[in-house]
């Protein structure tokens, strides 16, 4: 369980977890890229992160892995759905997008 800082760090660097987070990150980038552009700062930042994830996924994997692992309910055994939900929930924060 990643409820403490040590657990969060260990989980975020565990290769099977990192690969699953990366897959969820790519799926989220695909979904965001398909969104209708609203020409708002939030939409622009979300879509820019999508482009950057596709261009440099290795640069973003660690950021998403630590953000996902910092959720206290995420563990080594979390479902794909839980990881995807958590990646989606931190997307705007990593993008620097203001709240909706």
List keywords for this structure.
100 residues, mainly alpha, 5 helices
Describe this structure in words.
The chain has helices at residues 5-12, 15-33, 41-55, 57-69, 80-95. The chain is mostly helical. It has one domain (5-95). The chain is elongated, with a radius of gyration of 13 Å. The model has no long low-confidence stretch (mean pLDDT 94).
Shape: elongated
Order of helices and strands: HHHHH
Give the strand content. under 5%
Approximate helicity band = over 70%
> Strand pairing plus helix content: what structural class?
mainly alpha
Number of helices: 5
Q: Between the first and last Cα atoms, what is the distance in angstroms?
A: 31 Å
Beta-strand segment tally: 0
Tell me the count of domains. 1
- Model regions low in confidence, pLDDT < 50 over at least 5 residues: none
Mean pLDDT: 94
How are the secondary structure elements laid out?
Layout: H1 5-12, H2 15-33, H3 41-55, H4 57-69, H5 80-95
Helix pairs in contact: 1-4, 2-3, 2-4, 2-5, 3-4, 3-5, 4-5
Question: How would you summarize what this structure contains?
Answer:
With 100 residues, the chain is an all-alpha fold.
């Amino acid at each position: 369980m990643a409820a403490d800082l040590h657990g969060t760090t260990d989980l975020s660097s565990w290769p099977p977890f990192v690969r699953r987070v990366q897959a969820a990150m790519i799926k989220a980038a695909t979904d965001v890229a398909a969104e209708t552009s609203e020409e708002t700062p939030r939409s622009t930042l979300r879509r820019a992160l999508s482009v950057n994830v596709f261009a440099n996924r290795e640069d973003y994997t660690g950021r998403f892995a630590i953000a996902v692992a910092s959720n206290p309910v995420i563990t080594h055994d979390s479902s794909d759905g839980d990881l995807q939900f958590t990646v989606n929930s931190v997307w705007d924060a990593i993008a620097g997008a203001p709240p909706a």
